[in-house]
């Protein structure tokens, strides 16, 4: 009878340990998820700030047309690249020329 009680107590300890370990794992997952959510929110806010900065850059239609013609890119890509280089057509063209083919727009 004593052996059976010891076995039952051991089994109960295993179940309790499993449950406690599972609770710890759940709390770790929840903590990791909250960190990921916070980082994603921070990244989205940074992207929104960057988009507002780019939208504020003035670009000339002639510069966009030149980039489209010379670099054979679409209008949206030409405008985006021009904005990323503060509206400087020469710097934009140099950047596009020096862009490896695998990362070209």
Condensed summary:
The chain has 105 residues and is mainly alpha-helical. Helix content is 81%, strand content 0%.
Structural notes for this entry:
The chain has 105 residues and is mainly α. Helices cover 81% and strands 0% of the residues. The protein is built from 4 helices and no strands. It is rod-shaped, with a radius of gyration of 29 Å. It starts with a helix and ends in an 8-residue tail after the last helix. The mean pLDDT is 85.
The stretches of 5 or more residues where confidence is low (pLDDT under 50) are none
**Count of individual helical segments:** 4
Shape: rod-shaped
Number of strands: 0
Mean of residue pLDDT values: 85
DSSP strand (E) fraction? under 5%
- Helix-strand sequence: HHHH
- Give the C-alpha Rg: 29 Å
Largest beta-sheet details: none
End-to-end separation: 78 Å
Question: Helical residue percent?
Answer: over 70%
Structural class: mainly alpha
Show the helix and strand layout:
Layout: H1 2-56, H2 61-71, H3 75-84, H4 89-97
What would the keywords be for this entry?
single chain; 105 residues; mainly alpha
């Amino acid at each position: 009878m004593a052996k059976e009680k010891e076995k039952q107590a051991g089994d109960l300890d295993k179940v309790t340990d499993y449950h406690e370990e599972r609770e710890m794992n759940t709390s770790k997952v929840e903590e990791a998820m909250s960190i990921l959510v916070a980082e994603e929110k921070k990244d989205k806010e940074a992207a929104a700030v960057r988009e507002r900065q780019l939208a504020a850059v003035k670009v000339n239609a002639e510069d966009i047309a030149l980039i489209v013609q010379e670099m054979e890119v679409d209008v949206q890509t030409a405008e985006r690249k021009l904005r990323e280089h503060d509206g400087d057509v020469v710097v934009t063209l140099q950047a596009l020329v020096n862009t490896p083919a695998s990362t070209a727009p």
